[in-house]
Amino acid sequence: MKAPAGWGSVLLQGVAEVRSGLSKSSSRQGKSIRKPYLRVANVQDGFVDLSEIKEIEVPINQIDRFNLRSGDLLLIEGNGNPENLGRGCIWAGQIPDCVHQNHIFVVRTLHKADLLPEFLLLQLQSRRGRNYLLSCAKSSTGLATLNSQQLKQFPVLLPHLPEQRKIAEILRAWDEAIEKLETLRAANLQRRIWMRTHLFTGRTRLPGHTGEWRE
Predict the structure, then answer these.
(1) Which end of the chain is least crowded, N or C, by CB within 10 Å?
(2) Whole-angstrom Cα distance, residue 155 to residue 151?
(3) Chain segment 50-60, per-residue pLDDT in tens
């Protein structure tokens, strides 16, 4: 894909580091401490599901390696459904000292890089990004996985920061509007179900109407 006029293009490895997570099955050497950690189930499309957070033993000398930072981009590395590969969200530091398991990539933008994590996530979730991730997927024993080296080769489009912010704001506003519309539709459906159940069966009568119904 050709970059729009005025936009740069750079490989992901030039603007961010890709970090793998902690393996649950690996043996722990030395002293360790229990830490809250994120699993695949916690990383949803655009948000972090905090309804169930488990803990894991983390070697003390590896805490910094696996600790999450606010602004980290979380991406699913492995899943039984290839369509879920690359599902991701932005970590906002909701839980202090939280780590992540090995089926979740952490993409951390470099300080020198003029790249918003939100804008990078939008690119990875776009049709272009999805096609790239699916083309990199490998399947083994029913599990589809992404290779970190291939992820690092993802070509990132890089407009100036103000334009990145504007694009992210516009798409966020659209997402919020769609969410509100879906909520409104769901509420409207519930009203219609209630009316059919109550008004059409005579369980609830309109004001001023108390007579018997005739067939």
Answers:
(1) C
(2) 9
(3) 999 999 999 89
